[in-house]
Amino acid sequence: MKSAVKAIQELTGNKALSNGLTILSGTHGCGKTIFSQQYAYEILQSGGKVLWITTEELPSTLREGMKTFRWDISRFESEHRFLIYDSVSPARLGLSENIGHGMLGLDPTGMLIVITEQLRNAEIDLKAPDGFLLVLDSVSRLLLTCDPKAVIDFVSCLNSRMENARVRGFATVSEEVHEEKLLNSLIFSSSGTIRFRVKEDNYQRIRQFRVETMHGRAHDDAWKDYQITNSGLDISI
Does domain 4-235 have CATH number 3.40.1260.10? Predict the structure, then answer.
């Protein structure tokens, strides 16, 4: 299955993500960001809007990375339906690649203010609950840069505001760089968890993911194999 949206629907009884923030957890390089990009592109193709907050990749890297999978977002950016808020280049370059579009510091409080304003302004068709998607890629950079408690409070507040606005979204986190207690606090503060892993079997790397938690959703929590192809994730369901 080459549709991320349909894969989640299949695993949740033909429903969708829970309202709020779903944590995408796994080791670095396992496909969390690609899954988010694929899901976001499908939302855009169906007429929706995506707010993407990048804390690790430069906006130009995000755009070029999506192009490699044939996900050209230039039209959606020109229509103001794909919004990138850049928290990377101000720290790395001293200025933003996104001048005139969106710039943030690595500051949870500032992020919450900006995101809340976007949630207020979002024109969400409640008959199409996937009409707006928020992606925070990644929480790990915030946890490594800011006070962890402030980041957990930020995730909890953001999740509550997204639930109230009936908005859905992803926040990625790299498991190997954080203590288990901190990861558990992050998961507790969210609306769901999708976990990714890479297994070694007879010298082959097998990529898998599963829906571990999804508030208000009965779901299939068995591990599902997937491959990263030149057109995105191909999920075996």
Answer: no
Q: Are 115 and 88 in contact (CB under 8 A)?
A: no
Q: Is the alpha carbon torsion for 143, 145, 148, 149 positive or negative?
A: negative
Domain boundaries, the chain: 4-235
Peptide bond into 174 cis (omega under 30): no
pTM value > 0.85 = yes
CB 95 within 8 A of CB 89: yes
Q: What's the CA gap between 105 and 8, in Å, rounded?
A: 32
Digitized pLDDT (tens) for each residue of the chain, 237 residues in all: 689 999 999 998 888 889 999 999 999 889 999 999 999 999 999 989 999 999 988 888 999 999 999 999 999 999 989 999 888 776 555 555 554 455 566 788 888 988 888 887 765 554 455 688 999 999 999 999 889 999 999 999 999 999 998 899 999 999 988 999 999 999 999 999 999 999 887 788 899 999 999 988 889 999 999 999 999 999 988
